[in-house]
Amino acid sequence: MFRMETEVDKDRRILLGERLEQSNAERSPAIRVLRGTPHEDEVPLEVWAFEDASGELAAGLTAFTWARWLHVDLLWVADRHRGTGLGTRLLTEAERAAREERGCGWARVETWDFQAPGFYGKRGYEVVGRVEDYPPGATEFILAKRLSA
């Protein structure tokens, strides 16, 4: 017999993550080799752009590095700055930091069809997966890129 719960529980989530990490390390040589290296943990990476005059946030990128990969999470540019190259500058800086400071060889990102698959494609990312109707009526793209040395 089991009792099921659907409540949010931070301590259980941490325990679950630890147990899954251990299980993955036992089953995968690729995961096991990360143990005890700087690539074992997700490390946040953030790049921000502020307007000089007002100090207002003009654009930002949040990401993390793990297992020699840069995983771009969020990239946003204020409407008035779109098309100026600011998004490219943020992405380029994140890729540089991931490659030069953290030893990453690859980058990945998820984006929807109404967001930026073309933006990433022009910057060397290739579609490696897609999820139709996520959410219903939209398509999510998974893109990846080899970071050059």
**Which parts are unreliable, with pLDDT below 50 for 5 consecutive residues or more?**
none
Order of helices and strands: HHEEEHEHEE
Q: What structural class do you assign from the helix and strand content?
A: alpha+beta
Radius of gyration over C-alpha positions, nearest whole angstrom: 18 Å
Gap between N and C termini: 55 Å
- Biggest sheet overview: 6 strands, mixed
What's the shape?
globular
Read across the widest sheet, the strand sequence of neighbours is 1-2-3-4-6-5
> Averaged pLDDT, please?
95
Helix content: 25-40%
Bin the strand percentage.
Answer: 25-35%
DSSP helix count? 4
Would you count the extended β strands for me? 6
Structure description:
With about 150 residues, the protein is α+β, with helices and mostly antiparallel strands. Helix content is about 30%, strand content about 35%. The protein has four helices and six strands. The mean pLDDT is about 95.
Give the arrangement of secondary structure elements.
Elements: H1 10-27, H2 29-32, E1 43-50, E2 57-66, E3 69-77, H3 86-102, E4 106-112, H4 117-122, E5 126-132, E6 139-146
Main features:
4 helices; 6-stranded mixed β-sheet; 149 residues
Short description:
30% of the residues lie in helices and 33% in strands.
